[in-house]
Write the structure tokens for this entry.
Amino acid sequence: MHVVVLGAGFAGLATAYELLKAGHQVTVLERESWVGGMATSWKQGKYWLDHGPHRFHSRDKKLIEHLYEVLDDDVVTRERLSRIYMQERFFHYPLKAKNVLTNMPKLLMVRALWDYVWIRMRQWFKPIPDDNFENWVLKRFGKTLYEMFFGTYTSKAWKMPCTEISADWASQRISQANLWDTIIKTLNPPKGGEVRSLVSEFWYPGHGGIGTIGRKYGEKVREMGGDVRLESPVTRIEIEDGYARRVAFEQDGEEHVVECDEVVNTIPLPRLLETFSPEIGPDVKQAIAKLRYLAIVFVYLEVDQPTVSPDHWVYLPEKHLTVHRISEFKNFSDNVAPDDSTVVCCEITCKWDDEHWNLTLEEGAEIARRDLVTVGLLDEGVGCRGIDLHRLRYAYPVYDLTYKENLDLLKKEAKKVKNLHTTGRQGLYRYNNMDHSIAMGRRVAKTVAKGTDAKADQVAAGQEYFG
Ligand SMILES: Cc1cc2nc3c(=O)[nH]c(=O)nc-3n(C[C@H](O)[C@H](O)[C@H](O)COP(=O)(O)OP(=O)(O)OC[C@H]3O[C@@H](n4cnc5c(N)ncnc54)[C@H](O)[C@@H]3O)c2cc1C
């Protein structure tokens, strides 16, 4: 059987890896000149750089074993430290009750507690519906904590009011059901392991940044006979009698066509449907136009001092700062930067082609420097300079209030093609993590190889916490 896999991110690579192991012929088509998709890494001077903080975490023992297999055991583990900077101080994030209680200005704390008690009481006589992000969080945390830790950051990062964001986003990304839960779970962690929200250990490649996972997958796929075509964007999928028969792609300015028995898609679902021949109808085109993405610009600032913070990453929710999150790769692995200097990755969310998307490296570096000085992580006189700037167009699917109905239409259209399977973060328009994309890819491979549904769609489909 010949399977064509679209996209060489972790979902596509994991699919190809497992299919080759099962003895099938695989062609992987990738638009970029590298494998690994969003979770890639590259060397810039003395540093390995990632797209923002990428920590691999999972509670699935088999998946962890798989990670060690792919990385030939070159893995380090770390205890996560991530914080949020608010009101001129740093709080642990996810919130830790003790830290909030000791760190928060007392007056604000009284207000937060009062708001919390009030919102819980209000539930008895005027319940707040879970109809958008703002209401979901307000109901569980009260107004003060909502504004401090959730609303400000989310509306800043998403570039839209929280009342226009689906409650699905909150239920997947916010780790505790309510403040009382936070306090109980922090002071008295549940038996049988921590809840996912409080899992602090994570895995990371010993060398070469997070992208080593993708590079190793790529090497192994090729060693097993897989045909990985880089700089080969998919241009057309020829569908006959409900089956994808051929896939066309561009390489070196020419069109190539491969025959296929099965197709596994991991590229953005709207872009996949646009390659269909015969082409999709106007209703699907309309739904595509309504599905939006949030883009990110990553500015990499080299700093002439050993480190700027102990954190893996820090959220900067306040609106007077342009950067919304920073990360320092040196804290993920000792082998990605020299001892005497460091790189801080500063993320700015944006819309494709807006003013931030079009920032130059010099402009981005100045914004990054200014924000780091404002929060006190960098002294004015310390030498620093921008060494790279990357843009990611399909960084986050936007879960607005109508995304579900539009997405359902797209999924239905894809399902009409009987030998096409769409999966991964882009293939499902799902806000999932690396481990999920790998798990999905492995399950899809099983479905294709065995002909029985291994339920890849059910990975990361629930209300579990993804943070
Ligand atoms: C800033 C940021 C931080 C993150 N941090 C974490 C974290 O800490 N932990 C975690 O687990 N996850 C994290 N993630 C999520 C993680 O990066 C993704 O879940 C994972 O990389 C998705 O893999 P994928 O294969 O599903 O999709 P992708 O990596 O997007 O792969 C899709 C591939 O398709 C290719 N493609 C697109 N169009 C075409 C075309 N026309 N033809 C051929 N190829 C095409 C793309 O180039 C890409 O290689 C983070 C994501 C971001 C943006």
The pocket of flavin-adenine dinucleotide is lined by residues 6-12, 29-32, 37-39, 51-56, 233-234, 266-267, 271, 296, 392, 395, 424-426, 432-435, 437 (CB under 6 Å).
